[in-house]
Design goal:
It contains 4 helices and 6 strands; from the N terminus they run E-E-E-E-H-E-H-E-H-H. By secondary structure, the protein is of the alpha+beta class. Among the domains are: 51 residues; 34 residues. It has a two-stranded antiparallel ribbon.
C-alpha cells in the first residue's frame, strides 16, 4: 500500500478501509497529526473534503522514522552491505553455505576471486 505524506488542513479522524484510522490536526504537537501519511486511494477523497493538502513539501518525519513511512521504527535496507543476499549468492556460486563469521567485504572478495578464476576460493 502506497502512503502519501499530506498536510492536515483541519482536525479530522477518518477510517480508511484496509488501512485503519487516519488522524489529522494542523495545530497538534504531534508531527504525525500535522503531516499524516494517507493511503493513496484515500487522498483524493480527503483533499476534496478539505481535510488535507497533498503538498506537504519538506515536512519533517517523526523522530526515529528510519524508513520514511511516517511512523517511528522500521529500517532502511543496507546499501552495499546486504549480507543475506551476499550469502545466498555465495551459496549459488560455491554450492555450500558461507562461514557466518565472514562479513560482506569478505564474501564479495571471495566471489570476485571465483569470477576471475584466481586462487583463494575456499575448498
Amino acid at each position: 500500500m502506497t502512503l502519501v505524506k499530506c498536510k492536515a488542513v483541519r482536525v479530522f479522524t477518518e477510517f480508511v478501509s484496509n488501512f485503519g484510522m487516519v488522524h489529522g490536526n494542523p495545530e497538534g504537537s504531534d508531527e504525525r497529526a500535522r503531516f499524516p501519511m494517507v493511503p493513496e486511494a484515500a487522498v483524493a477523497k480527503l483533499a476534496a473534503e478539505g481535510k488535507i493538502e497533498t503538498d506537504a513539501g519538506d515536512a519533517p518525519l517523526p523522530q526515529l522514522d528510519h524508513d520514511g513511512d511516517g511512523h517511528p521504527g522500521g529500517s532502511v535496507s543496507a546499501t552495499g552491505n546486504d549480507i543475506k543476499a551476499l550469502r545466498a549468492l555465495y551459496r549459488e556460486t560455491f554450492g555450500k553455505a558461507p562461514f557466518n563469521g565472514w562479513d560482506a567485504d569478505k564474501l564479495r572478495a571471495l566471489m570476485a576471486e571465483a569470477r576471475t578464476g584466481t586462487e583463494g576460493a575456499p575448498a
